[in-house]
């Protein structure tokens, strides 16, 4: 019997004594790649019920069964933050999804803009990246990756109570900042490599829910901008804040 | 004659009327890949003399000559910030160097720690990554990538006037913060994937130049931590500050 450091996302409900049947791919990973066998322990989570220590109770080439022993961590929900971004090259899109899961976004929304090239996106592949990031980084929550949608449509139906942090690369040095910004539900919008169109920029600037924030005097790639923007937000309004009572 | 958007780093001095002979690889990139020819314009920089508009005055398969027309941007030096990091997998190490150049580090220092695996590093390849990031992101400065060195040696010879931001993943929520930290020369230290050893952590904690800073409640990969730490530093102490007079 070994206590492994493996963390595995599963879809099923978790609870004391609950058994979790494994799919073929999961069995291959646990028993083929990670060399676990019957009696070995690992950590599992489903994004809802926290993290559980589980034991391998059946191990086969095409399947297997885990049994939940006890809960080792509560569900830790990130703040109510959406990350909106315009998909870029495949590797950098994957990277943005991974980083959003690490940095604590609740929902990831790929959007098409006037200057976006890509019209298609494999939502399932991106969701798998978010799951892998949660497995690697000790997360108990997996952000939902939404289907690709038009930015203009999203703005048409924007929820009244959600603020939007608009990272406008043409506004270096002229931002409002987040220190005095309201708490509550937020979204961050990261532009495409070619920037936003004038029409988009005008619409975003006058929207009552928009807060324009600059990401410094240098031009950042979209993936860098995503991490930097989430850092500023988490430090000012999210769960990186030093003192909950402040501001 | 076309005004291209190409930005090229060159090693030579730049000044009005100055000619810049091209190496074979540069000629291949400009004339083979980017399809420039005689009379076309591009931007060049050398990390010291700002950005210059240049004209192609000779174009050949194995070489060529550019001539400087006029300066289009002054040298923009980033703040005096070093990024120290323990090299990780190749792709993520490349990424950290790229991000340090984008985020505005002055110097990039790969270090070996008690838990670092890699003992070798291609400094020239990493330096090329920093140059490429500056070319892509409109930079006029290229951070120097130092040779790999031992963290313990670096701490033995640490300069008196340089503060160190120590991102300690075991200190979530207990950080000092940067708001009251002194300005001046700084370094950021990002740990290896296995964390720091107890001996390293003890030494860093008691050093008079160390400021312990937490990067939130979730575990971040080293490349994410590097971007997040540089964001916090630039926003609090660097050139992302909203009001120069504040604090």
From TrEMBL, chains A, B:
SUPFAM superfamilies associated with the record: alpha/beta knot (SSF75217), PUA domain-like (SSF88697)
Enzyme class: transferase
Pfam families documented for this protein: Methyltrans_RNA (PF04452), PUA_4 (PF20260)
Reactions catalysed, as given in the entry: uridine(1498) in 16S rRNA + S-adenosyl-L-methionine = N(3)-methyluridine(1498) in 16S rRNA + S-adenosyl-L-homocysteine + H(+)
Keywords from the UniProt entry: Cytoplasm, Methyltransferase, rRNA processing, S-adenosyl-L-methionine, Transferase
Ribosomal RNA small subunit methyltransferase E methyltransferase domain segment(s): 78-234
One GO cellular component term: cytoplasm
Limits of the Ribosomal RNA small subunit methyltransferase E PUA-like domain: 22-63
Catalytic activity, EC: 2.1.1.193
GO function term, MF aspect, one: rRNA (uridine-N3-)-methyltransferase activity
Localization of this protein: Cytoplasm
Entry keyword Cytoplasm: yes
GO biological process assignments: rRNA base methylation
PANTHER family listed in its UniProt record: 16S RRNA (URACIL(1498)-N(3))-METHYLTRANSFERASE (PTHR30027:SF3), RIBOSOMAL RNA SMALL SUBUNIT METHYLTRANSFERASE E (PTHR30027)
Function: Specifically methylates the N3 position of the uracil ring of uridine 1498 (m3U1498) in 16S rRNA. Acts on the fully assembled 30S ribosomal subunit.
Family: Belongs to the RNA methyltransferase RsmE family.
Name of the molecule in the record: Ribosomal RNA small subunit methyltransferase E
